[in-house]
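Recall from the previous lesson that a structure prediction takes nothing but the amino acid sequence as input. Here we apply that procedure to ATP-dependent 6-phosphofructokinase from Clostridium gasigenes. The sequence below is the only information supplied.
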Amino acid sequence: MKKIAILTSGGDAPGMNAAIRAVVRSALYNGLEVMGVQRGYSGLINGELFKMDRASVSDIIHRGGTVLRTARCLEFKKEEVRKEAVKILKDNGVDALVVIGGDGSFTGAKLLSKLGVKTVGIPGTIDNDLTYTDYTIGFDTALNTAIDSIDKVRDTSTSHERVSVVEVMGRDCGDLALYAGLAGGAEYIITPEKGYCKEDLCRVILEGKEKGKIHNLILLAEGVGGAVELAKHVEFQTGIETRATVLGHVQRGGSPSAFDRVLASKMGAKAVEVLLAGKTSRVIGIKQNLIIDQDIDEALALERTFDEELFKIAEEISH
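The prediction returns the following tokens.
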């Protein structure tokens, strides 16, 4: 193996730049050439490749987003498009491809591997929705961003004796809502995995008021519904002034936490190690604080699990 390429795909996540840096510098240290691909799979099929060196990744470890940019690419679902991507990689002398992203990005890597391209995936997504790994790059930073906002909302909510509904990201995975709800002291946490009962929610709020509670914090994952609609329902049913706060894409940005920088660096170095060992169609992860690699088909086939124990703890200590 002489040359590898690297791209970021799907939604951006804090720590992606740290992973890019680790891949590039680990590859160069081991005598490999590196090509960067701009704008994910879209850039790949458009031939947006450029040579990277140590200077290409200087002063990026602390930056959010991705210096390689990212884009959605629905055309990549077509086999003829993927074959063109393979041709472009071969024309540029690329022997292997590192993909940083979520499950959709990994699916693209898997399909490329079936066409003869050596691939390895690094999990970069704030949702933490990949079962094979305990944590994905970006989750810790997004969680801390959410907590910072929640603490501020709590201040004004307490001052006005309101109910606050805070909506965090997580269309299909409730990890951000669960962790942020527990760490933020929420009275009620709503996730796609557990759902919720509106009557039960309102009962909890009214019971809290009877006990002298002057404010309530509700954490809502975006996949369960909208915070604005829920806030209107709660105010109508309880008579308590209720406000909605949608954190939105602020959760994607910002300087990555120390945890995400270290995790990304470890995973980036592991990706290069895996490729040098001759492996292909692998994904990098962390299990019980150990950096691992796993077959991409096996990883994507795993049924996603929800931390029922943590949810139970949150319920027990929230009211």
